[in-house]
Write a structure and sequence with these properties.
The protein has about 325 residues and is α/β, with parallel strands linked by helices. Helix content is about 20%, strand content about 30%. The strands form four sheets. The protein has a six-stranded antiparallel β-sheet, with helices on one face. One of its GO terms (molecular function) is 2 iron, 2 sulfur cluster binding.
Length: about 325
């Protein structure tokens, strides 16, 4: 398996506790040069000890080139990444990261924008809000958390020029400030684009409600941080065929397509290995796909012409890949 073709060395200039269980990390270039430009909604891959690679959204002003700012929730169910960031990474450390990538971009031609943040999902949406405020975009943001103590960047938002366009909702707050999803969606017109990021349950609820109301996929924008575990008890072996050579590669029941290909010397670029980031997205020319990602839209999955080989499998006996 290959890593990203380019990487950057950065230094942790500042580590700050932003809320209960959440730290921000200010990253600056290790050699003092300007960092690559990025746009609102971008994320970076952070390489950690033990070969871990994790994706974190950038939440500073997209006009800045002297730093990247990320926010990291210490997840009790961590697979090692957030725990390492909180417990091992300290100010002065150097890290390897990828250049920014954006799979969650603003639709700049939209007339109105509705930003819905759940917990740590605020990070890309905060960057979007600041960009929209700077460019005169029309938007409203709802920020949902368990409590004020768990609300990262609250003071930054309250001190911003767009504070009046943001509503906070806390699970432990009074009833009148609770998030009313149906009312929020009902209040949006046909020229509004929706952006959502946060825990999977929150995102599923938002996207499910929007789709039930007939929102077209073109107006729904989202980014998952992680995928829920999928049962592998019924997995079976199948084959993939490399279209360029006709080579047949068997994929055992207990192995991913990416790992089966790597064992045969065929590298596919990967990052999250959960079907979240889309780094390994591969065209499928023939066969029926068992989609297990959260990256592709339902329409893209139904088209059956691409999949994420890090986690998705085959329903048919064979898949022909554009490799």
């Amino acid at each position: 398996m290959s890593t990203a073709p380019a990487s950057l060395r950065v230094k942790v200039a500042r580590k700050t506790v932003e809320a209960e269980g959440i730290c921000s990390f200010e990253l600056v270039s290790a050699d003092g040069r300007p960092l690559p430009a990025f746009s609102a909604g971008s994320h970076i891959d952070v390489h950690l000890s033990g070969g871990l690679v994790r994706q974190y959204s950038l939440c500073n002003d997209a006009a800045e080139t002297h730093r990247y700012l990320i926010g990291v929730l210490k997840d009790p169910a961590s697979r090692g990444g957030s725990r390492a960031m909180h417990e091992q990474v300290v100010e002065g450390d150097e890290l390897t990261i990828s250049p920014p990538r954006n799979h969650f971009a603003l639709a700049h031609d939209a007339k109105r924008h509705l930003l819905l943040a759940g917990g740590i999902g605020v990070t890309p949406l905060l960057c979007m809000a600041e960009r929209l405020a700077a460019t005169g975009g029309v938007f409203h943001m709802h920020y949902c958390t368990r409590s004020r103590a768990r609300t990262a960047f609250a003071s930054r938002i309250e001190a911003s020029a767009f504070a009046a366009q943001v509503q906070f909702h806390h699970d432990d707050g009074p009833p009148e400030q609770q998030f009313q999803l149906d009312a929020v969606l009902a209040g949006a017109d046909d020229h509004t684009h929706l952006y959502v990021c946060g825990p999977k349950g929150f995102m599923d609820a938002v996207l499910g409600a929007a789709r039930a109301r007939g929102w077209p996929e073109a107006r729904l924008h989202y980014e998952f941080f992680s995928a829920e575990p999928v049962s592998t008890a019924g997995d079976r072996a199948f084959e993939v065929v490399l279209a360029s050579s006709g080579r047949v590669v068997p994929v055992p029941a207990d192995q991913s397509v990416v790992k089966a290909l790597a064992a045969c010397g065929v590298d596919v670029m990967v990052s999250c290995e959960q079907g979240v980031c889309g780094t390994c997205l591969t065209r499928v020319l023939e066969g029926e796909i068992d989609h297990r990602d959260v990256y592709l839209t339902p329409e893209e999955q139904a088209a059956g012409d691409q999949f994420t080989p890090c986690c998705s499998r085959a329903k048919s006996a064979r898949l022909v890949l554009d490799l």
